[in-house]
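A quick aside before the break. I want you to see a complete sequence-to-structure record at least once, exactly as it would be stored in a machine-readable document. Don't worry about memorizing anything.
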Amino acid sequence: MLAEEGPYPVSMAVSVPKRLFKRAVDRNLLKRRIREAYRLNKQGLYDLLLQSDQKLHLLIQYTQKEIADFRSIEAGILKGIEKLRQELLK
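That is the input. The structure line, written in tokens, reads:
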């Protein structure tokens, strides 16, 4: 979905379903891990969007049933960003 306003090329949101993780502490932990993994690895996506003068709304939804460690989450984020970059290059 393409965006029109805002100073950054990507606006990002994170969703962790309450039906999978009843405790807010668990949901918040996962959201923090996802946001940090995205923050550390977003530069390649930003560069591509700035070169092509595009903007993007991105929603990341956590779907696993157990709490993953940071390395697993980061690997998933990297894979997702790479897929997104490939689609944008088409």
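Two observations worth writing down. The CA atoms of residues 26 and 57 lie 25 Å apart. The radius of gyration is 14 Å. We'll return to this after the break.
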